[in-house]
Design a protein that fits this description.
By secondary structure, the protein is α/β, with parallel strands linked by helices. The protein folds into 3 domains: about 5-160, Rossmann fold (3-Layer(aba) Sandwich); about 175-350, Glycogen Phosphorylase B (Rossmann fold, 3-Layer(aba) Sandwich), CATH 3.40.50; about 355-550, Rossmann fold. Helix content is about 40%, strand content about 15%. The protein is built from 24 helices and 18 strands. It has a 6-stranded parallel β-sheet with strand order 3-2-1-4-5-6, with helices on both faces.
Length: about 550
């Protein structure tokens, strides 16, 4: 791409009106929101209009990154060549300086070219390169990225760094109140636990987990938490939702095919837990930070999994997955192999994670749960140096059982890790996310879970406030998880972990399971740092903590 043309495009005041061609599917649209927010930050004075089909327009109509909505109605008045010409004439009246094409279709480039928009910016796909003034090569590396990063990478030539950011959505206070009132009309109390199920998939039956297993899991969870179950689905999935409700004894409300997009958003936001196939509503739940269990079969979690923390992914690995087929041509083994017990266990772990509203209330009340801040490398897993591949991660002996004991005892378990390899270019955010998914999967095999993972991505010379022993990561965890500041324990294999404990007034436990513990102990002595207890490994540390706290854990 011509650097001079990009420089002209990005100079101060060169762009005042931007048209963004949105994606056509709700899930994809959710995953574009970090790119929209980055575009807004890059062009803060520009007016940004979104060209989108009605469902996506409704989804993003209140999003702060979007000023105007232009409806694209096909089927409808914009169908066929005449409809496209009519739309192009309408867009021409908008006097846009720049069109950003998040959709890859040929027609997206053709319509904006017909509209006379002078700068047309998008991936060079679908034979449309000659219609683009700014062609971004779609490399195999970019194709393999998660969709959130895929859309962010498109903007990199505009001087917008492709930094990771979680998708976001907005509802209005009126919409939230209406959802609460709607549920109350069905007898759901405001304080009652609400569990959402999304058992369908517009994409095709291959992505659907078995209906009877959805019912089994939801019934068990509802009985354990006195919960009401909301069943969601799109048009045409009413029969599926009704069938699952008929298999259950718990109180259910079937919303399949009966909500607008805005109502769907507000109702999902109200859920304490969301259990779903790989669908658009899955990404809606993730954007609202609703704890969720996502069941994956034929699709690729590396590109379409819920983005960011606060979810658990369940898969049954088979040789033919991901196949990306709409219908399974054989025996649906990727979904058949996922038992109800596995999903139920994942859901119970997620119900131990507080959602954003509960976090805020917990913080307001001061919180009461003790938290154990865990170092990662050398404490939970073998430390190979700069760990940058998921298959390199191996738990140290007894770690899964030790974390599970903390979980059962009611402690919050939160990982804090310095990851300067990001700043040094030794690992990408994508690789780090994959490593942490692997960490959660290995812990889950022992019935253990983490309530949060927080990392410092900076170089040691950056003098940031989050690199241990600085307290920045703890402050983030307290804010995001609603943790009490006065009941904390830090476990780690480095002097920096003991230093962190001292900086936040926490109990310090040093474990000698990392590299060269003698050197770390000498470093602590040189800094006058004395841990409250020294253990051989995490199992010994947890045993000491439980005895000190006088906690009995049933094994």
């Amino acid at each position: 791409m011509d650097a001079r043309r990009i420089a002209r495009l990005t100079r101060q005041g060169a762009v005042t009106r931007i048209l963004v061609r949105g994606t056509n599917w709700i899930g994809d649209a959710v995953l574009t929101t970090p790119a929209l927010e980055a575009l807004r930050a890059r062009f803060p004075q520009a007016r940004i209009a979104l060209l989108a089909k009605p469902a996506v327009a409704e989804l993003l109509q209140c999003h702060p990154a979007v000023d105007d909505i232009v409806l694209y109605r096909d089927p409808g008045p914009h169908a066929g060549l005449g409809g496209k010409l009519s739309l192009a004439i309408q867009l021409n009246r908008g006097h846009y300086d720049l069109a950003i094409l998040l959709q890859n279709a040929f027609e997206a480039a053709a319509i904006t070219a017909l509209a006379g928009i002078p700068n047309r910016y998008g991936y060079a796909t679908d034979g449309r390169s000659f219609l683009l003034t700014h062609r971004i090569p779609l490399t195999p590396k970019i194709r393999r990225k998660h969709q959130v990063e895929y859309y962010r990478e498109l903007l990199r030539p505009l001087g917008i760094p492709a930094e990771p950011a979680a998708p976001t959505l907005r509802t209005t206070p009126g919409e939230d109140a209406a959802a609460t009132d709607y549920l109350q009309a069905f007898g759901v109390k405001p304080e009652q636990v609400v569990i959402g199920l999304n058992p369908g998939s517009v994409y095709g039956s291959a992505k659907r987990w078995l209906p009877e297993r959805f019912a089994q899991v939801a019934d068990r969870l509802a009985a354990e938490h006195e919960a009401c179950v909301l069943i969601f689905g799109g048009k045409g999935e009413e029969e599926l939702g009704t069938a699952i409700a008929g298999m259950m004894t718990a109180p259910t409300i079937v919303f399949s095919g009966r909500t607008t997009v805005r109502q769907l958003m507000a109702l999902i936001k109200r859920c304490r837990l969301f259990i779903t196939n790989d669908t658009g509503p899955m990404h809606v739940a993730a954007a609202f930070q609703v704890p969720l269990v996502a069941i994956f079969g034929p699709t690729n979690p590396g590109t379409t999994s819920p983005y960011g923390p606060g979810h658990e992914l369940v898969r049954h690995p088979v040789e033919c997955s991901p196949c990306l087929l709409r219908e399974c041509p054989i025996d649906h083994r990727c979904m058949q192999g996922i038992g109800a017990d596995v999903v139920h266990a994942a859901a119970r772990r997620q119900l131990g994670v507080r959602g954003p509203e509960q976090n805020a209330q917990n913080a307001e009340d001061g919180g009461n749960a003790a938290v154990v801040y865990l170092d990662r490398d050398g404490t939970l897993n073998y430390d190979p140096g700069y760990l940058n591949q998921p298959d390199q991660l191996q738990l140290l002996p007894g770690v899964g059982q030790a974390v599970a004991r903390l979980n059962r005892a009611g402690f919050k378990a939160v990982v804090l890790s310095n990851q300067s390899g990001l700043a040094r270019g030794l690992i990408t955010h994508e690789q780090l996310d994959a490593i942490h998914r692997r960490l959660r999967e290995l812990l889950a095999a022992d019935g253990a879970w983490l309530d949060g993972i927080f990392i410092c991505p900076h170089h040691p010379e950056d003098a940031c406030s989050c690199r241990k022993p600085a307290p920045g990561l703890v402050l983030r965890a307290q804010q995001e998880l609603g943790l009490a500041p006065d009941h904390a324990i830090v476990i780690g294999d480095k002097a920096s972990d003991v230093g962190l404990a001292r900086n936040i007034g926490a109990t310090a436990v040093f474990v000698s399971s990392g590299h060269h513990p003698e050197e770390e102990q000498a470093r602590m002595a040189g800094q006058s740092l004395v841990p409250d207890f020294t253990a051989r490994d995490l199992s010994g540390a947890v045993k000491w903590i439980l005895e000190k706290e006088n906690v009995l854990v049933l094994e």
